[in-house]
Amino acid sequence: MCGRFAFFSPAEAVTATFGFEVNFQHEPRYNIAPSQHISLLRRDDTGQTIVDQCRWGLVPFWAKDPAIGNRMINARAETIAEKPSYRQSFSRRRCLILADGFYEWRAGDGGKTPYFISAENGQPFALAGLWDEWQGGDASALRSCTIITTAANEFMRDLHHRMPVLLSGGQQSAWFDEKTDRDNLLGLLLGPQVAKLRAWPVSKTVNNPVNEGAGLIARAPA
């Protein structure tokens, strides 16, 4: 699964990585937790790619209670096209969640040790996601999202059996393209995860979501 991540790159780095100019301001964040608002790229009603802020934990448009989002922070790639909670967003509301790395906890004799996983080149990357918009009884709108996970690749398998789906280059364009059919979309999610990653242990301070700061991704002493 993916239950905590970080996004701290400036807009200039996002522009350089994803190939188009983005104009937004955000505070560097090193301990993003479920129910918080996160930065993502999505298509608006005109088909333009925009940066948006959505609450992490998807609330389907048909939900009676937005609390359902608390248990929908991740969507399994294997069942995403069939589950009622996700299938309409999978068809119409796909997004890319901006991240510089994510955390995973490795079990050991001394308990679970958190690890920070990032791109080998240190650049930001995109996590495949879905978004939706829920209308409250007072006509207020809540935009929310979920991160899609798949089976861990060889690198990640030592840390956890699941990992977020990382999309790059042409995969990102295909993910956004309305003409990409269901089978090809599933191929993006279920195909080999070839992104080159690095990982190192960090302080257990990250276990508490109220903690913030660059020190959270510093390598922990041996």
Question: How are the elements arranged and paired?
Answer:
Elements: E1 5-7, H1 11-18, E2 29-32, E3 37-43, E4 49-56, E5 74-76, H2 87-92, E6 94-99, E7 101-108, E8 111-119, E9 125-135, E10 141-151, E11 162-164, E12 166-167, H3 170-176, H4 182-190, E13 197-201
Parallel strand pairs: 4-10, 5-10
Antiparallel strand pairs: 1-2, 1-7, 3-4, 3-6, 6-9, 7-8, 8-13, 9-10, 9-12, 10-11
What does this structure look like?
By secondary structure, the protein is mainly beta. It has a single domain, classed as hypothetical protein yedk fold (Alpha-Beta Complex), CATH 3.90.1680.10. It has helices at 11-18, 87-92, 170-176, 182-190, and strands at 5-7, 29-32, 37-43, 49-56, 74-76, 94-99, 101-108, 111-119, 125-135, 141-151, 162-164, 166-167, 197-201. The chain has a five-stranded antiparallel beta sheet with strand order 2-1-7-8-13, with no helix packed on it. Strand 9 (125-135) and strand 10 (141-151) form a beta hairpin. The longest helix is centred in the C-terminal third of the chain and has 9 residues, at 182-190. It is globular.
